[in-house]
Amino acid sequence: MQENQNPKNWKRSVTLGVTVVVALGVAYMIGAFVVGPGSVKAGGGVIPTAVLDMPTGILTGADGDGNTITLLVRIAETTEARTAGLRNVGVKALDSMVLLYAHAKAQTTRVSYDTSGIRAPLELAVIDESGSVVTVKKASKTSMSVSVSEKHQWVLAAKQGLLAKLGIAQGSVVKPGDMRRIA
Prior knowledge:
Elements: H1 7-43, H2 49-52, E1 56-62, E2 68-76, H3 79-84, H4 91-94, E3 99-107, E4 111-114, E5 122-127, E6 133-139, E7 145-148, E8 152-159, H5 162-165, E9 173-174, E10 180-181
Parallel strand pairs: 2-3
Antiparallel strand pairs: 1-2, 1-9, 1-10, 3-8, 4-7, 5-6, 5-8
């Protein structure tokens, strides 16, 4: 039997083995960065940075029967945040996310809220300056925007059915002006 006594062959075998292991590691990392986000996105749990950067608050109020309502909301209080809205938020993330469009003063003219790029049907609770929900508007997932002609200062937006589950309907009262910010 002949052993491989040649040191050059030994070094070449080790170098080749290490190169293969490193190449597989690099391929795995590239795959994780390319395929991973796509699988999270496909699962519907995506929350874009624009939404994550919005402040968070706890909003309280009462439903039409006087029962206490407590909501955790993301606050879109800047023009940029209101423009971003819930765009590109994944369907699963929309199952529990409520966005508060906040204006510094009551809006007396028609305001359009962009709903393009939203992956689920929405409902928008329109709230006047006293905190009363004056109407709830619905938007299909193919809608480009929702126009609000009622005088309002705030709008709560969520996946259709979520606001009703949380007790928000026409006649509910919430006080966004008394909201406690937590982040």
